[in-house]
Amino acid sequence: MELHNFDAIVIGAGMAGATAAAHLAPTRRVALLEAEETAGYHTTGRSAAIWILNYGPPDVRALSGASRSFFETPPDGFPPLAHRRAVVTLAPPSQAAHLASMIAEGAGIEPFPLAEIAVQVPVLRPGYAAAAAIERDAFDIDVAALHQGFLRTVQRNGVLALRHRASLIRRTDGLWHAETSGGASFAAPILVNAAGAWGDEVARIAEIPTIGLQPKRRTALIVDPGAHDCSAWPLVGDCDHTWYVRPEARRKLMVSPADETDSDPCDAQPEEIDIAIAIDRMQQALDIPVTRVEHAWAGLRTFTPDRSLAIGAGSAPGFFWMCGQGGYGIQTAPAAGALLACLIDGRDPGPLAAIIPAVDPRRLERTT
Ligand SMILES: Cc1cc2nc3c(=O)[nH]c(=O)nc-3n(C[C@H](O)[C@H](O)[C@H](O)COP(=O)(O)OP(=O)(O)OC[C@H]3O[C@@H](n4cnc5c(N)ncnc54)[C@H](O)[C@@H]3O)c2cc1C
Questions:
Q1: Strand pairing class (175-180; 166-172)
Q2: Given pLDDT bands bounded at 50, 70 and 90, which one contains residue 327?
Q3: Could you tell me the end-to-end alpha-carbon distance of the chain, in angstroms, rounded to an integer?
């Protein structure tokens, strides 16, 4: 078996592995190992591609906020990444109290008159919402451009090895050794686990404690909004997060039932029932006849037990976690990669130092 020596091995070339490897690449030769034929085949290629500051637990908000400048002013080698799109939250009467607390606790969320929404989104059914709010400072992310930009950075000083599933991982003589389905063996003093839904499986293979990762399936579909050009519509959803829609193009609207169904790690597929629920919930709020679903997909959003991320050292020397990205792995990616690199190098991450305890993977380690 061929042996390749590197300074760091990163397992998984989705968004988490790509940003981790790219942030290590300036000072290290990195081997980025990906089981599939294409990087981003799993969750990274299946997201809704939105950046929303008021989303997720405090560590996620800190990482999203710290990522903003990267999206708005991308560094050399990245094309424009952010395209403005406001987020409108609708509250039926039963969700009005929830909306009020969201406005009180969130940053930059304002009450929004229903009459104004009806102008922006003319299909809103009168009577659905009792109140609404708008978060103007949100944007669509060009996920493919972000991901490819990170992968190009890695390839300048390292390798992206596709069709290389790490199937045997051992630490000997101060080095991690990863043997892959591609018939090669990689060795490095540092190993980063960025395997998404398979994060705990990689820990088991490496014989280190797992952290209780739970993949949860989320469904999305594309429908035609009929006579309406929806391209300038905001993202619209309800306050309890049971459905949302996001324009994809002039005549394409992405709809999701915001489902979170526990799943084993797998190539997630949409279920008919979740597609039907998405359409039903959307149609209670929006007058959009659906004659045909153009395309439907599902992806696994993988959460830690407390829903904060897992970024940093594990209990074995040189083993680092970059997992638990949940529903925020795109919008947090630039800062999450930078934080991981600081933790590996022993550098001060600046204001992100405040979230290190919240994302420390050792808070979650289990021996089963
Ligand atoms: C419908 C939907 C909507 C979403 N919307 C948003 C959004 O608007 N904004 C946002 O920020 N996030 C969103 N997300 C979440 C976001 O997509 C994820 O958080 C992110 O893509 C996770 O990236 P990842 O690299 O951890 O996982 P993945 O992209 O799944 O990558 C993990 C990779 O590891 C590889 N791998 C696993 N085991 C091995 C092994 N042993 N050896 C080698 N490779 C291995 C896998 O093949 C896979 O490619 C959404 C997700 C879904 C499903």
A1: antiparallel
A2: very high
A3: 31
Among candidate residues 59, 84, 81, the one with its CA nearest the CA of residue 70: 81
Above 60 in pLDDT, residue 176?
yes
Please tell me the predicted confidence (pLDDT) of residue 366: 81
Where b means 16+ CB within 10 Å and e means fewer, 19-29 reads: bbbbbbbeebb
Residue (of 240, 288, 248, 219) closest to 90 by Cα position: 240
Instruction: Tell me the C-alpha distance between 50 and 132, whole Å.
Output: 20
End of a domain among 266, 285, 301? 301
pLDDT at 367: 67
Which of 301, 325, 345 finishes a domain? 301
For residues 301-310, give the mean pLDDT: 98
Task: Out of 47, 50, 70, give the residue to mutate to test ligand 1, the one with the largest number of ligand atoms within 8 Å of its CB.
Answer: 47
Ligand 1 centroid to 128 CA: how many Å?
34
CATH of the domain at 337: 3.50.50.60
Question: For residue 46, how many C-alpha atoms fall within 13 Å in the half-sphere facing its CB?
Answer: 22
Q: Which domain holds residue 11?
A: 2-49+143-213+305-363
Instruction: Say yes or no: 132 and 227 in one domain.
Output: yes
95 CA from centroid of ligand 1 (Å): 31
Total tally of structural domains belonging to the chain: 2
The answer to whether 215 touches 301, Cβ cutoff 8 Å, is: yes
Pair (35, 165) in one structural domain = yes
CA distance 122 to 200: 46
Residues 242 and 292 in one domain: yes
Question: Quick one: CA dihedral 12, 16, 19, 20, positive or negative?
Answer: negative
